[in-house]
Design a protein that fits this description.
The chain is of the alpha+beta class. It has twelve helices and seven strands. The strands form two sheets. It has a five-stranded antiparallel sheet. Strands 1-2 form a two-stranded antiparallel ribbon.
Length: 405
């Protein structure tokens, strides 16, 4: 989990800045949206085929139900004005689940009709909405490319892997502030009308060049040759794509109890995601692997590898844990505000401001990459490799704010 009290910042939407942001005004990844409460203990200051129409998971209990007030009034106004959802802003019912009849009407009004739903009153799940929007945008080829690459690498991908990745590359999903984590939804839960309005409004703003970016990126997407241990680690990590970003979260269960007793939906912050993949469920035949990570925070996990053992960007291998800091390779562990897991060929999987997803190591991720560590080698399961970073030279202290989560 990253650390800062800074509000999320707007970043340029330049094509040169990488795949994200692909929507104007989208906020940057974890380091600009993960939140810090400085008075808390250090332990908690951290971090395609269209989806199958399985029955929706039941919503969370009363304590986790969305608040009556709409959190996205601008997006609601947009979809009402365009005639996608109604009947009006004042009578919008943001907390109600979106039905298939409503989704079909919205897509038809947008010019992307679908067959009449067999069960029009059934609630649409998050993954189903994402899949329909990706299809409406003509990006099913991109989603299939991602899922097929994972299948060919022996990773047994979930059916919704591709559509969830594409939806998040386009910024169709967002992260709620820590105080509103009760609004977060799991992939198989009914999507609220407020969430649907946000995603539809974002989809309306997607342009041709943004679609082409996703198509180009997916066309070259691959995992390369994986060892058996790398395959086991990545297969587990990819199972969680589509889960929300939840501050201090470490679980995919429908609800989880945090350190302070607060019950929130399942999901992960950035370090909690890595913690879940490597630490909380031992890999059969590799008891030492879970012991390689000691601390729970981005700061602790990045500091556990000595300077001489830090791995540079050019030597990354699948399964490596990657760290991002405010000063890139010159960052100190206290400046590490984001982390994830390398997939190979310039991609990572991580929990970010759009939930658990994949991103290219370009733009922000390239400039803020600090170093990596190799838990598989630390546990004696893989051989260490050349490409370690040289010991950093002393640098003058810059007058620069700490990385904002």
């Amino acid at each position: 989990m990253a650390d800062s009290a800074s509000p999320s910042r707007r970043i340029p939407d330049s094509p040169e800045s990488g795949l994200y942001p692909l929507i104007r005004g989208a906020t940057i990844a974890d380091t600009d949206t993960m939140r810090r409460l400085s008075s808390l203990p250090a332990l908690v200051l951290v971090c395609l085929a269209v989806a199958t129409a399985a029955p929706a998971e039941p919503p969370l209990g009363p304590a986790a139900q969305p608040a009556p007030a709409a959190w996205d009034p601008q997006e609601i106004a947009t979809v009402v004005e365009r005639g996608l959802l109604g009947p009006s802003v004042d009578a919008f019912r943001p907390s109600d689940p979106l039905t298939w009849a409503e989704l079909a009407d919205a897509l038809a009004a947008w010019g992307h009709p679908i067959p009449a739903p067999a069960f029009p009153d059934r609630a649409v799940t998050v993954r189903e909405l994402d899949a329909r929007l990706v299809a409406a945008l003509g990006l099913l080829p991109a989603s299939r490319a991602v899922r097929i690459a994972a299948r060919d690498a022996g990773l047994d991908p979930i059916p919704s892997l591709g559509t969830e990745v594409v939806a998040r590359l386009l910024g169709l999903r967002t992260n709620h502030p820590a105080a509103d984590d009760s609004l977060e939804l799991l992939p198989g839960q009914p999507v609220t009308r407020a969430e649907a309005a946000y995603s539809l409004a974002r989809a309306l703003a997607v342009g041709d060049w943004q679609r082409q970016q996703v198509l180009d990126a997916s066309a070259g997407f691959s995992f390369g040759e994986l060892t058996e241990w790398q395959r086991l680690v990545l297969a587990r990590a990819l199972r969680f794509v589509g889960y929300p970003y939840v501050w201090t979260g470490t679980s995919e269960k429908r609800r989880q109890t945090l350190w302070d007793g607060k019950v929130v939906p399942g999901g992960f912050d950035c370090s909690g995601f890595v913690w879940r993949v490597y630490k909380l469920q031992p890999f059969p035949g590799a008891p030492a692997l879970a012991d390689t990570l000691k601390g729970r925070t981005t700061y602790a996990m990045s500091a556990e590898v000595p300077g001489a053992g830090r791995i540079g960007a050019d030597a990354l291998e699948p399964g490596d844990v990657v760290f991002f800091g405010s000063r890139g390779p010159l960052s100190k562990p206290a400046e590490i505000g984001h982390m994830g897991i390398a997939l190979g060929n310039g991609w990572i999987v991580h929990s970010s401001s759009r939930g658990v997803t994949l991103d290219r190591m370009s733009g922000w991720y390239a400039t803020r990459f600090a170093w990596a560590r190799r838990p598989l080698a630390e546990a004696g399961l893989e051989q260490p490799q050349a490409g370690l970073l040289p010991a950093p030279e002393p640098q003058p202290v810059r007058d620069e704010p700490a990385l904002a989560p």
